[in-house]
């Protein structure tokens, strides 16, 4: 029996993160997520070293918890009296939990038809929720709401928490800890595939590996794989077409969490793809749902659809010959299955409808 | 930046667990759960050292994952072709996930009116589910079903997985890792409060601390606090009344997961209470629901009701003067909030009904 473990969340890496005094550090045990070797899907794809990084096992079920831990600690340190933002669900549940832990009120704007289960996961932590007509559909309304977030934050000495480097660069630094943990668990891999909506997760992981290279702890970046839905592929298309900005077009994707048609972190995403011999994958929602099912059925990993698009994108890259089958590859599984209960019901409705009912004597 | 972490789940403690060859060890990253210091509730109760052990952050959201990792590894090692059992939900979701990871089919009997969300979490991993009339209500049917589980397991070379020391003592050894992790994170505490249904979780934690004492790594057991619902308090009443067996009476508790009127691990529970100057708490379901809400609102910890009964039981012990307020105390939070979506809806229905709707111009 060994005695070694201490649960310090992202603060294990405090020396490499924005400075927060120990008494201001908030943690709910985020990070230190498992890296699990594939037992079935990798072999079928002919991949010899496939791993899943289970960000779905963070305290509120998504990688957002790393950002929230940093954001609320910064808010506490600078004496902010509340925090404020917008959410489609996961960031809101995460910030609400960490705000509760910090004893700081959280005000959050959501779209009128937010998924009920996602709303509930925000409300259990007693956040102050406000619905806004047209938010999530009309880009002009989105801009207006964001201006309100900024204005109210400045006017009231509140912390604005938006999970993008473009808006909250210090809090987003915490996303790098994903890369640092992978490097520690496995060494720097040959390729990392990441779900991409606004680009913050992808950018943070790239920055983390970039830092490792800067410190001469590795000689080469992993190839960064950006995985987007065919219904919302503005970043990958913008990069592939050399536009220097996201391609245009509203989102028609059904995958909650990555429906971001005006991705704020485009510049870092393009830099990462350019400098790492990156790979862009654009996959149909049906493929993402298929790999979500396969992860649950064959690997025992139950994630939300957005968490499976990294695997769907990798499969496409392998089948089109853009990835070496002997490479050491990590797929980021960004969020937990229970985040999307509508999809859960669809996944199992056929099986649920055909469960036999027996008398105990008939078994 | 430090590089230290490897995700080996319960196998970090392999030297102290039943022998499983490395190539037969199954893990999804269970264990290594956070131990979080209370930031608000402890101070209000006048407790100087209150901690929460978040078993809710295991891969499928409950401590059962530690047992499943061991059970499926043992099944694989002994060449079993399937596993079989019964469940009210959490064990089933856990075993189903680990069976999927191991590539071993899982057959499971459930009651006719199993909570839909709990059923879905079993089905996503493609378990073979069978409903049985009267299971969960009629003890005679429960006995019959259990005989079927044993008979089928023996006849077919399947592994019977029932999460109790009385039925699966080797797999249950893995529960001790909770105690070993706490000892590592904090040292051996003065008291540990545990949700008690069948008694397996409580027994395993006691055994883990007992082992630490046997190895002379600690001089004293923590006081073991057994927390039961007033609607299903057969173990605590049996101990308090000196019956030498559980008290009689069907369960009327509404708290899913601890409604066990014929607890199989009574002998170990009584031994633990006797030898550790133990404490029994019997709390009304309303108290448990109240502390579930308070944990979410004030500590950022969202657990299912059964996971909050350890805190409810501690509060009772403190208020009745049975626990020293300066003691180092750990409450085990056994399962995640998303396990009980009916309760989730109840928790937030008032808040959800009063969310204001604004035009963006009105904000």
UniProtKB/TrEMBL annotation, chains A, B:
Pfam families xref list: PALP (PF00291)
Keyword entries, A-Z: Lyase, Pyridoxal phosphate
Cited InterPro entries: Ser/Thr_Dehydratase (IPR050147), TrpB-like_PALP (IPR001926), TrpB-like_PALP_sf (IPR036052)
GO molecular function, one term: L-serine ammonia-lyase activity
Cofactor(s) needed by this chain: pyridoxal 5'-phosphate
Name listed for the protein in its UniProt record: Tryptophan synthase beta chain-like PALP domain-containing protein
GO biological process, one term: L-threonine catabolic process
Organism taxonomic ancestry: Bacteria, Bacillati, Bacillota, Bacilli, Bacillales
Domain of life: Bacteria
Domain Tryptophan synthase beta chain-like PALP, residue spans: 26-335
């Amino acid at each position: 029996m060994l005695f070694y473990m201490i649960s310090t969340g992202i603060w294990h890496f405090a020396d490499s993160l924005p400075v927060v005094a120990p008494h201001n550090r908030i943690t709910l045990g985020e990070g230190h997520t498992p890296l699990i070797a594939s037992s079935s899907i990798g072999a079928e794809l002919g991949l010899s070293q496939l791993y899943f990084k289970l960000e779905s096992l963070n305290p509120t079920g998504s990688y957002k918890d790393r950002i929230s831990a940093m954001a609320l600690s910064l808010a506490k340190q600078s004496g902010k009296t509340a925090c404020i933002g917008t959410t489609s669900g996961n960031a809101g549940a995460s910030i609400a939990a960490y705000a509760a832990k910090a004893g700081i009120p959280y005000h959050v704007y959501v779209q009128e038809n937010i998924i009920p289960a996602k709303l509930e996961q925000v409300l259990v932590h007693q956040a102050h929720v406000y619905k806004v007509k047209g938010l999530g559909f009309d880009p002009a309304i989105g801009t207006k709401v964001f201006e309100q977030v900024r204005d109210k934050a400045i006017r009231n000495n509140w912390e604005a928490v938006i999970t993008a480097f473009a808006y909250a660069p210090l809090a987003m630094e915490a996303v790098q800890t994903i890369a640092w943990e992978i490097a520690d668990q496995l060494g720097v891999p040959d390729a990392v595939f990441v779900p991409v909506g606004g680009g913050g997760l992808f950018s943070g992981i790239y920055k983390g590996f970039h830092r490792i290279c800067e410190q001469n702890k590795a000689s080469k970046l992993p190839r960064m794989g950006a995985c987007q839905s065919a219904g919302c592929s503005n970043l990958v298309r913008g990069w592939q077409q050399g536009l220097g900005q996201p391609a245009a077009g509203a989102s028609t994707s059904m995958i909650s969490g990555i429906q971001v048609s005006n991705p704020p972190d485009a510049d870092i995403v393009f830099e990462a793809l350019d400098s790492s011999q990156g790979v862009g994958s654009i996959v149909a929602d049906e493929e993402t749902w298929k790999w979500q099912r396969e992860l649950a059925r064959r690997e025992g990993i139950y994630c939300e659809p957005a968490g499976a698009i990294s695997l769907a994108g990798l499969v496409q890259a392998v089948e089109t010959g853009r990835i070496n089958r002997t490479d050491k590859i990590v797929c980021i599984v960004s969020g937990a299955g229970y985040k999307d209960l509508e999809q859960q019901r669809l996944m199992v409705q056929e099986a649920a409808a055909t469960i036999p009912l027996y008398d105990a004597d008939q078994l």
